[in-house]
Design goal:
Helix 5 (about 90-100) packs across helix 13 (about 295-315). The protein is globular. The protein has a six-stranded mixed β-sheet with strand order 2-1-3-10-4-11, sandwiched between helices. It has two domains: about 1-120 and about 245-315, D-Maltodextrin-Binding Protein, domain 2, CATH 3.40.190; about 120-235, Periplasmic binding protein-like II (D-Maltodextrin-Binding Protein, domain 2). The protein is of the alpha/beta class. It is about 45% helix and about 20% strand. The protein starts with a helix and ends in a 5-residue tail after the last helix.
């Protein structure tokens, strides 16, 4: 019995020494999207702001494809040593598992969810040609014209598509989904009057709404946005209880040691909690997250179940 005990003590001592030396090399953030995507932009911001807290440089690697499954799989299969993490959004972690059930990994069990880095409501806007100025007006027009309502998104299963589906269900409406390859294309079609409405990020819709090219009717959060105080929430404007927040987060491979997870959690929260970052996010209609790993995992599980129901009941398929 003496030899196994000695071996165990040696292994534990070696692990403790290794954990205490972390980090000893650069951190890599894998983004399961292409350059210029919102996740890529925020990953590069984090990579720039994190080193003073983390103590090492941080690099970003984009791995697009498969609706985010390629980049996510790369993280899942990385060594659980704290040097490779992902930065993704709720679509990748909680919607795509129901659209790509044969991806070969489970986002609930094959990743450890470190923290949510941002959350933000989206904006519902209509074409100026509809002649409506409030969500109540829009609902009356939509209900009086069943089958004539259409909406756009960056593609089937994307967060804008899913929240639009959630909105239709809450409003007891039917509408035709028009998928595009990017959110900007849907905005162009809305401005031209070929779409009835879209729900998109404030970063995308805000500039054209301020320019009077589309009409902002509501935001999807539980409270009004400080940057858009005159735009009510969907719940205020006629659909009580409706709420949706878009979010981004960082995760690591399952079995990453607890001490390393907690260091990553603390350092990422510090980097995202600076006044500079807060101001930068405010301009995009977003707020920094501040979850512990336990809090965030509980949230991910709720979101995973919620979007599973929507995908099944609406019969949504990946493009």
């Amino acid at each position: 019995m003496r030899v196994p005990v000695v071996a165990l003590v040696f292994a534990l001592a070696s692990f403790e020494s290794w954990a205490q030396s972390y980090p000893s090399k650069p951190l890599k953030i894998i983004v399961p999207a292409g350059p210029g995507a919102s996740t890529d932009v925020r990953a590069r911001w984090l990579a720039d702001k994190l080193p003073p807290f983390f103590g090492q440089s941080v690099v970003v690697e984009d791995r697009a494809g498969g609706g985010g499954t390629i980049g996510t799989e790369a993280v899942v299969k990385s060594p659980p040593d704290g040097y490779t993490i992902s930065l993704s959004h709720q679509g990748t972690l909680t919607i795509n598992p129901h659209l790509y059930p044969n991806a070969g990994f489970d986002t609930l069990t094959d990743l450890v969810h470190i923290t949510r880095i941002t959350s933000n409501p989206m904006m519902l806007a209509v074409s100026t040609g509809m002649g409506v100025k409030s969500l109540g007006d829009f609902l009356r027009v939509a209900r009086a014209n069943p089958g004539n309502i259409n909406y756009g998104s960056p593609g089937s299963g994307t967060p804008p598509h899913m929240v639009s589906e959630l909105f239709l269900r809450a409003a007891n409406l039917s509408g035709t989904h028009v998928p595009f390859k990017a959110g900007g294309a849907a905005v162009t079609e809305l401005i031209a009057g070929r779409l009835s409405y879209i729900i998109e990020s404030v970063a995308i819709l805000g500039p054209v709404a301020k320019g009077g090219k589309v009409v902002p009717l509501a935001v999807t959060g539980s409270k009004r946005m400080s940057t858009w105080p005159d735009v009510p929430t969907v719940a205020e404007a006629g659909l009580p209880g409706f709420e949706y927040l878009s979010w981004m987060s960082v995760s690591a491979p399952a079995n990453t040691p607890r001490d390393i997870v907690m260091k990553l959690n603390a350092d990422v929260r510090k980097a995202m909690g600076t006044q500079e970052t807060r101001d930068w996010l405010l301009g995009q209609g977003a707020e920094p997250g501040n979850d512990t790993p336990e809090e965030f995992l509980a949230y991910v599980k709720v979101e995973h179940a919620r979007w599973g129901r929507v995908v099944r009941e609406a019969g949504i398929k990946a493009d």
